[in-house]
Amino acid sequence: MVNIVSNSHIKRRLPPLGALTAFEAAARHQSFSRAAQELHLTHGAISRAVAQVEERIGVDLFVRRNRRVYLTAAGQRLLQTTTESLDALSYTVEEIHRHDGASPFLAVSCEPSLAMRWLMPRLGEFRTLCPELNVDLRMAGGPIDLLSENCDIAIRRMDFGAHEDYQITTLCSELAGPVCTKDYWEKHISQDLNKANWLHSRTRPNAWDDWRNAYGIEKIIPKSEQHFDHFFYTLQAAQNQLGIAIGSIPLVSDDLKAQRLISPLGMQSSGHDYVLLTLEEPNLDPRIAVFTNWLMEQITR
């Protein structure tokens, strides 16, 4: 008969987690100073933490030479295991947090232009409807790693490939077309786009060409052109009568309703959708479900 002895009764003689975290940072940077900067500690605190780990293990983890530190063979081995363990611990904690539907926070990453021109003006209403849920709004665009960036949901213009494990919920299809103020159209353009100052965004450099192709018109040479760093700057410039820009729905929906802008030539499908990206079906998390349902109601108004 083979006796299997469980080691569950053996007390783990591990250094404190804080000391291991300090060691991992120092080993990764091979610098106590850089580790101190990363963890917002003093150089002395990192040195004491590393000494605590070395004392518990009973071997040197670093060789100190000419004001620099180098990992020993034991240090390299411990770094690999510590990094893997900390990553696994961080992942598990994040997974637990994400499956806690009772959490009072919802981290939402949103395209900056959509956030500023459509979502933010409506968040006050959501706060009134769901005062117990705090929306942590983060502005970012393009591909996203929801786990590493600690986000529950991302709102994106789907002009890139999303991770295959993500759940994609379509919010709306995007429509695009020239927008400007009524006064600008009547005073400067009068049906002739050649007379206009075309406003461009460096984040959507092909917006005018894409619209022309969708509208089926030949190349137009504008009277003048002006470029801005972001799409929302371009739309604001159009609202301030600096020229005419390619706007999109839903970004200019409120401006069109309030007649701050007009769409004199109408809107065409851009071929892109605005979507919600989540790690699992939205209805599995009550926080994401209530926010998603609210967004769907807003977009159809």
TrEMBL record:
Keyword set, alphabetical order: DNA-binding, Transcription, Transcription regulation
Q: Which is one GO molecular function term here? A: DNA-binding transcription factor activity
Sorted alphabetically, which Pfam families does this protein's record hold? HTH_1 (PF00126), LysR_substrate (PF03466)
Biological process, per Gene Ontology: DNA-templated transcription
Xref: InterPro entries:
LysR-type_TF_proteobact-type, LysR_HTH_N, LysR_subst-bd, WH-like_DNA-bd_sf, WH_DNA-bd_sf
Q: Where is the HTH lysR-type domain?
A: 15-72
The record's similarity note reads:
Belongs to the LysR transcriptional regulatory family.
The record's listing under PANTHER family reads: HTH-TYPE TRANSCRIPTIONAL REGULATOR, HTH-TYPE TRANSCRIPTIONAL REGULATOR TRPI
In its UniProt entry, what is this protein called?
Answer: DNA-binding transcriptional LysR family regulator
- Source organism per entry reads Marinomonas rhizomae
